[in-house]
Design a protein that fits this description.
α10 runs parallel beside α12. The chain is globular. β1 and β2 form a beta hairpin. It is of the alpha/beta class. Helices cover 38% and strands 18% of the residues. The chain folds into two domains: 257 residues, Aspartate Aminotransferase, domain 2; 76 residues, Aspartate Aminotransferase, domain 1. It binds pyridoxal-5'-phosphate. The site of pyridoxal-5'-phosphate has 14 residues, from α4.
């Protein structure tokens, strides 16, 4: 709190724009931490949420159910990667990950073949609760808690040119046995700095998991709901996960909701007369009807032809900008997957805490654009409704950053 700048008070949002108390407006180029899909205060979502509030705001989800939960679950299963057949509701991305980890560990326990090891990418981010922190990168963000986090087998992210090393690392761990599951952010590691790797190498890794009977958990909390250009990143892959974690975009960015889905192989390991085989996990607000209603409304918008069109045009504009900015001095790398575009500036101090980060962040705010650098990496994750003019302004801001850095 001592070093943080005062927060900017936002009073209203519409489309990709946020309006501040002091009259300034900002383009939300990070979709309010990657959650917003269709723009702020979207009338369709607002209407469905308002209706739901007047019908049923909440009901205990143990022993009871309701239409919004059923409808959202059915809607998700229709579009999720092949094989997903059951839906478990929780509150956010971290809890969606906790649930998946508990499902994986208990799966083996329930079968009477307990397995201990979990594999994850070294630079991954899966959330801020303890299980999620354990499978995330051992970084400054988790340092005070390291001694409380369970051991995880980390493998390197298989970025271009380093695929073989990761494959070897996974094979070695897989052969050693005792592996319960592999959890991964498919194709794009968000918090690591929009680090990207190919679907081919991920398929190689998932194939190894299948050969060694290792459960797979796709953390699509960030990549889900169209972000990567397809509805889910797993749609780029031949090998499908056993479990999928969802949150962020699930309600179009309206409110908190988490979902963990699984295939029948997982589900069946819990389907038993022995009550000790139950997945004992539940939150007070599990499957909150209002959140589910927002989810249904967002899904309707996501599957509309207009959104498909928007996605395509963002991808095309990103492609052009990539070609343009690649040429410029001071640019280390430009990478893109669908609507996600990341520009990495050449810089020696790459930590989140570096001054460069603050300089870039404040420069963008001054231009009326919200861009939150991850160290020397700037990325765009726009709401899909962003207009061409707004996106052009975001690109101009990034070009302004490039000038700022190369002039120094
Ligand atoms: C944001 C994120 C999470 C955590 O979600 P929260 O809702 O913030 O708890 C988990 N995994 C990934 C890949 C994320 O990007």
């Amino acid at each position: 709190m001592k070093t943080a700048a005062l927060p900017i008070a936002i009073v209203r949002g519409e489309g990709a724009l946020l309006y501040a108390e002091d009259g300034k407006e900002y383009i939300d180029a990070v979709a309010s931490w990657w959650v917003n899909l269709h723009g702020h205060a979207h009338p369709h979502i607002a209407e469905k949420v308002a209706k739901q509030l007047q019908t049923l705001e909440h009901v205990i989800f143990a022993g009871f159910t309701h239409a919004p939960a059923v409808e959202l679950a059915e809607g998700l299963l229709k579009i999720l990667p092949e094989g997903q057949s059951k839906v478990f509701y929780s509150d956010n991305g971290s809890t969606a990950v906790e649930v998946a980890l508990k499902m994986a560990i208990q799966y083996w326990k329930n079968l009477g073949k307990p397995k201990k090891k979990i594999i994850a990418f070294r630079d991954s981010y899966h959330g801020d609760t303890f299980g999620a922190m354990a499978v995330s990168s051992r970084s400054a963000f988790t340092a005070p808690f390291w001694s409380y986090l369970f051991d995880v087998e980390f493998i390197d992210v298989p970025v271009a040119g380093h695929e073989a090393e990761t494959i070897t690392q996974l094979q070695t761990i897989a052969k050693s046995g005792d592996v319960a599951a592999f959890i991964y952010e498919p194709l794009v590691l968000g918090t690591a700095g929009m680090v990207m790797y190919s679907s081919e190498v991920l398929d190689n890794l998932l194939e190894i998991c299948q050969q060694h009977n290792i459960l797979t958990i796709a953390d699509e909390v960030m990549t889900g709901f169209g972000r990567t250009g397809k509805l889910f990143a797993s749609h780029y892959l031949k090998y499908k996960p056993d479990m999928v974690c969802l949150s962020k975009g699930i309600t179009g960015g309206t409110m908190a909701l988490g979902v963990t889905t699984c295939n029948s192989r997982i589900y069946d390991a819990f389907l038993n007369d022995d009550k000790n085989k139950t997945l004992f996990h539940g939150h007070s607000y599990t499957a909150n009807p209002v959140a589910c209603a927002a989810g249904i409304a967002s899904l309707e918008l996501l599957l509309s032809p207009e959104t498909k069109q928007s996605l395509e045009s963002i991808v095309a504009l990103h492609n052009n900008f990539t070609l343009e900015i690649k040429q410029l001095a001071g640019i280390k790398d430009v990478r893109q997957r669908g609507t996600i575009l990341a520009v990495e500036f050449e810089d020696t101090s790459t930590s989140y805490f570096s001054n460069l980060r603050d300089t870039l962040y404040n420069y963008a705010l001054g231009q009326g654009v919200i861009l939150r650098p991850l160290g020397n990496i700037i990325y765009i994750i726009p709401p899909y409704c962003i207009t061409e003019a707004q996106l052009t302004k975001v690109y101009q801001t990034i070009k302004g950053m490039q000038l700022l850095l190369t002039e120094k």
